Amino acid sequence: MNKKLVLNIAIIIVWVSFVITSGLVFYVNHYMPHGPSYATGEYVCENDDRGPCGPEYKEDTQNLNIPNWAIFIKNSEGQLLWMGLLFLGVILPTFKNKKTEE
Hints:
By secondary structure, this protein is an alpha+beta fold. It is 65% helix and 16% strand. The chain has one domain. The chain is flat, with a radius of gyration of 19 Å. The two termini are 19 Å apart.
């Protein structure tokens, strides 16, 4: 197969995966039950430590009656997946442009 075609298919797959993951993140965060919040013991400040400052709270997802994929998306692993897909979606087209310049 042509390398250009493979790269175009990869770009399409990454962007479709990003859109689907974004929809799942929205659904899980807005329509599924939430667990209780707990203080982590950390004190965080917004705006480059200029304020406002306050304790950091996280959501306890251990006893939620939701599927495991929803718990994955609620936790930081889901955020890493979403950001990784966004990064790939931005980076892959640059390889396409480099190939056409050569």
